[in-house]
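Exercise 3.2. Students should predict the tertiary structure of the chain below and write it as structure tokens, then compare their answer with the key that follows.

Predict this chain's 3D structure.
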Amino acid sequence: MTRDFNKYQVKILNKSFVKDKLNFAKTAEITFLDKEEKEIEKILLAYLSTEDVYRKIDLGEDLKLDNCYLNGFSLSDYRVSRKKQADELINVINFSAENSFIDSLEKKISLDFTYSNFQGEVNFKNCIFSGSDLLLFDFSHFQHHVFFDNSLFNFLNVSFSNSKFGFGNVSFKNVIFRGGNKKFENINFGNGDVIFLNTEFNDGDVTFTNSVFGEGKASFKVARFGNGRIDFTKVHFGIGEVTFEKVEFGDGNVNFRNTIFGNEKVEFTRCEFGNGDISFISANFGDGDVSFAGTGFGNGKLSFKLANFGNGKLDFHYAHFGTGDVIFERTNFSTGNVDFRAVDFGNGRITFNRAHFGDGEVSFEASELQEGRITFRRTIFGVGIFNFETANFKNAELVIDDVNFGRGKVSFKKSKFGLLSLESSQMNNYFDLRVEECGKLNLSNTIVKDIIDIDSSDFKTDIRALDLSGIRLLGRIYIDWKKNDVKNLILDQNTSNLNKAEQFRVLKENYNLIGQYDYEDGAYVEFKRLESKHQLEESQTKKLIPRILDHISYFFRYIIFDKVGLYATDPIRVLLSMTVVFLLFSVLYMILPWMFHDTQIISSLFDPGDPRDLSLIQKAFYHSAITFLTIGYGDYYPSGIIRWLSGVEGFIGLFLMSYFTVAFVRKILR
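Answer key:
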């Protein structure tokens, strides 16, 4: 009997129907037509009137209605005709309507099985329900196995609400619901398996709200939903496995809010969700493994807020998300591994705020976010590994704010980020931040208790902005001062000179701890420069005289401490500065005697004109040398203006020699 038809025609023939020991007085001829009203198939079924069926119920006989055509069946009408209460249970014994057609030629008459008490196995295999707008099994009791396999519900609103199933299996395998709403609310499924394998729900709402599944397996594998609402709110799945593998959910909203899953495996592997919102808010997944591997989420909002995952593995491996928000806020991941490897997060906003990860491994390895942001704010991590290696967030942001990382290793090796922010987080263990590319790395206000490794030797690390503001460094940072251009990364920040100075101070202390003294010197010089600039900025609020004195002080520090010797970090630079000063005074000693006749360098040993006396140039360089080095032999002495200049040179020479000694000894001792 075909299920692919557009219309059908029914004729009741006054000829007997005989098949498999069945003998009925009349025959129903059913012709199935396509959209062009061409015949697809014509079948013959036994015809029974509803009164014939009602009499069988009265007599307590088995209802064997296989290969029958039944029109207008209604237990509500049966109760009225027998003057029974509207909610009285009607015993239906060993019901079977396999390969039957249950019809209602009058649209206003519902196909009504409400308050049935099915005793024995129930068989609706290969059955077609049609004609009416409504098919009701509400408040029915099923004692044993129930089969609707391969049946067709043809443009009906179907309801099994408030029914109870016994210890047998319930099977809707390969069923087609062609339009209409499907209600399975407040059902108590027994301890058998509940099978909706390969079921086509098509358009219309599908609701299982408040239903309870027993100890058997619940399977919706390869089912296909249309564009209506799908609601599993407050459903309680039993201890059996739950599978929605390869299900197509259509574009309607999908709701598993407050749903309780048992402790066996929960499968949403390779599902395809449409563009409606998806809610697993406050869902409890038990201790079994949960898999969304390879699942495609549409562009609607996806929320796992307050969901609870047990001790099993949570797998989103190869899943792909759309443009909608993805929310894991205050989600409890317990102690199982959490796998987001190779996930495509699409273009939305993903939040793990205040989520609680247990001691299992958390992996986002090779995941990708095209645009948008992933946020971990006040999230708690256990002792497991937190892995973001080779992730591609080149045009997106990863914000980890005020997070207390546990004792597990954290790795971002070879990843790409537009922004990687770990602001105000506590890093308790080794942190691998050897990223391949990062628009900005924000480590402001972090507490570092172990090692942060940003120094890559086997590939180039491209960090274009770095923020170390307020960092509390109890551990160490490994970052190459030159390769990463740390100096300019900090100088280019849009922040105060005091803030920048503090960052260089931290780096200076860090490089000292790890024995990278040249890098320490570079950081120290920048720290002192910015500190001086900050002091000059503060002087702008003072009165005129103090402000002028501060400017003089700044200029003095700039020339003497900075330009002359880089704050005693470069003895070679001090030595060169000494040479420049020596040559400058030597030139002055040569020029001044030509300008002033009473200004000259006089020999105390030889009279003027004695051939043993030094020439003017020799006197200038000789006198400058013994004065600068504070030797003072006394064989030549200055007069006039040179006398005063000699005193200045002697002081400068003494200062620079001391400056050189400090810088040189500092280098040697380290």
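Discussion points: The first strand starts at residue 7 and ends at 13. Residues 571-669 form a domain with the Helix Hairpins fold (CATH 1.10.287.70).
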